[in-house]
């Protein structure tokens, strides 16, 4: 799915472009979590959403891809903060991610 990985000669965990993408997913999910806590809903700027929707549609992203990404997000956070990881934390991050994905999927239609 990621064109920058096709001919990459470095391991995935060292690929700078993949790290940038992963960081943007984490930052957007953090922003979604903050919005959920403060306002009870996730609001993404229309221009950002339209771009995300168009990009994900262009590359053929489907539900399964979002689920894999959510799992990777959970595992990353769990590994980074094992002492505070809990079912409640997993559910909260999952809800924030799901709300963000829902907004992206709306723009993919």
Automatic annotation (TrEMBL):
UniProt keyword Lyase, yes or no: no
Boundaries of every Globin domain copy: 1-109
Protein name: Non-symbiotic hemoglobin 1
Gene3D superfamilies: Globins
InterPro entries named among the record's database cross-references: Globin (IPR000971), Globin-like_sf (IPR009050), Globin/Proto (IPR012292), Leghaemoglobin-like (IPR001032)
Key words of the record: Heme, Iron, Metal-binding, Oxidoreductase
Cofactor: heme b
Organism the protein comes from: Capsicum baccatum (Peruvian pepper)
Catalytic activity reported: Fe(III)-heme b-[protein] + nitric oxide + H2O = Fe(II)-heme b-[protein] + nitrite + 2 H(+)
Family: Belongs to the plant globin family.
GO molecular function term, any single one: metal ion binding
The UniProt record lists the keyword Nuclease: no
Cited Pfam families: Globin (PF00042)
């Amino acid at each position: 799915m990621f064109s920058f990985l096709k001919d990459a000669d470095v391991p995935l965990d060292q690929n700078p472009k993949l790290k940038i993408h992963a960081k943007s997913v984490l930052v957007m999910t953090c922003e979604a979590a903050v919005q959920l806590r403060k306002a009870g809903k996730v609001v993404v700027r229309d221009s950002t959403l339209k771009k995300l929707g168009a990009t994900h549609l262009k590359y053929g992203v489907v539900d399964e891809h979002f689920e894999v990404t959510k799992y990777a997000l959970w595992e990353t956070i769990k590994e980074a903060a094992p002492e505070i990881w809990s079912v409640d934390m997993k559910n909260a991050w999952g809800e924030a991610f799901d709300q963000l994905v829902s907004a992206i999927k709306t723009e993919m239609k």
